[in-house]
Amino acid sequence: MDQIRRETHQPVRPTFSELFTPKLVTVLREGYTLEHFRADAIAGLTVAIVALPLSMAIAIASGVTPERGLYTSIVGGFIISALGGSRFQIGGPAGAFIVLVAATTARVGVDGLLLATIMAGIFLLVIGYLRLGTYIKFIPYPVTVGFTAGIAVIIFSGQIVELFGLKLAGKEPGPLVPKLMAVGEAAGTINLSATFVAVLTIVAIALLKRWRPKWPAMLIAIGLASVIVALLSLPAETIGTRFGGIPRSLPWPAFPSVSLARMIDVLPDAIAFALLGAIESLLSAVVADGMTGRRHRSNCELVAQGFANIASALFGGICATGTIARTATNVRAGAHGPVSGMIHAVILLVLMLVVAPLASYIPLAALAGVLAVVCWNMVEKQAFATLLRTSRGDALVLLATFLIVVFRDLTEGIVVGFVLGSILFIDRMAKSIAVEPDQSLVPEDVADSASAYDSSEASDADTVVYRISGAFFFGAASTVGTVLDRIADQRKNFILDCSAVPFFDSTAANVIEGAAHKARRAGVRFIIAGASPQTRRMLINHGVKRPLVTYAASIRDARAQLAGNRE
């Protein structure tokens, strides 16, 4: 069957197994050697060292205890690598989720958060199995840049209290402006020890990244800060003083309390988790593809994300997704395939079992410093500046997304940015279409001049030939319709060349039908030349057929039809 499709130039649709076979299976089929395992083990260790402090920092910033971030990286990260559609994807808690998770936890508690995460996992399974993952790529680039920058601003604003050791009068507000006002009111409570620890952590990370880029800068900086706080007995709050440390084992899986009312209550959160998880994970997979030249399976990746979120919540973890920074670290560390991500999860489990008591000494200001560095790295500064100065339309989409994410809501920012980007695309596509005389029929002195085409100079006094170039859809209907109404009754014969039209929609078909009726009333013979089978089918379904029009494979065939009628 595939051979027949190839011979008839029909597209070969991938089978279910081709779409949803995990990359782990693909890698093992190719032949997995000891050398490959060694490369994956080194990469897995490297990523685990990076993920250890990040997982705890993101969990704390999300309003939950630090061990829940580790549970997410261990359970969710293992499943994402084992079942995913990307060779190099590293899963775990992501900074982009901090705002959503924190808001959900504050509103419905940890139990509601776990239920929302399970529901989000189910939604991701549905999105993946319905093969909707391919549509995520339609999100405009300015939207992703503005969204990421907005997330970075929100995350950083949430770390100001920990960076300076402030004591707020009440609960920290969620929205940016009230949060900054509360921070300003608490400026007099600054803890110089916490500030020193945060600055030390940031400076240490920056210096290590510059002078020893292959060293685990974040882990070394946090270790240095922890030692200094312990030796000097600095009055800086630590994981131990606030949370009492972290457990030394994974909990048994358990379902959160479930009821219809509870599910309805957390439904908006679950939808937001699923959409953001799909976007974040596929963007991460695209980044990995760009670094390696490989291609990921988007729908398979979403299915893996779904199972990972369900499992993560059952073990007490938070939302899991593909993480761009850790995935890029995995690629740079020389990973061969998904085994590196699985090893990263296993190493995190071992580290949690072994060094859990030491985690109590980690200063919260140091973790806030780590997140401050993450926020700085999240902002695509060069891309942001380029979009602002190269195109007004892209700048509008970028700024609208960024400002709405910062001052309103993450989901609203994505939706508004996507709508504005779509309108901008429609406008550009509408302006790109052209309706012009066929230049092969225009005398050289006219074709080379800037003057408008005079149909009276055509080689055939009874026939006018025009060509449409570009996608003909509702956005271009008014422009094309105006031209067709003007020329459809100029001669005895009107040939419309559609060979350069890749796409027709119903609005375009309706415009052609109107022009055909006008030509028939004027006694003009209307021939459509070069239309693809799909275009012809669309036109015929909308009534553009005999006796209104006839079809020809090319302009030459159309002229042959006319010559035959004259004979």
Automatic annotation (TrEMBL):
It is found in: Membrane. The keyword Oxidoreductase does not apply. PROSITE patterns: STAS. It comes from Mesorhizobium amorphae CCNWGS0123. Its main location: membrane. Residues 462-562 form the STAS domain. One of its GO terms (biological process) is transmembrane transport. It comes from the Bacteria. Keywords: Membrane, Transmembrane, Transmembrane helix. One of its GO terms (cellular component) is membrane. The keyword Transmembrane helix applies. This is Sulfate transporter. Pfam families: STAS, Sulfate_transp. CDD domains: STAS_SulP_like_sulfate_transporter. It is a multi-pass membrane protein. The chain crosses the membrane at residues 41-62, 74-101, 113-132, 144-166, 186-208, 215-234, 270-290, 302-325, 345-374, 395-426, 464-484.
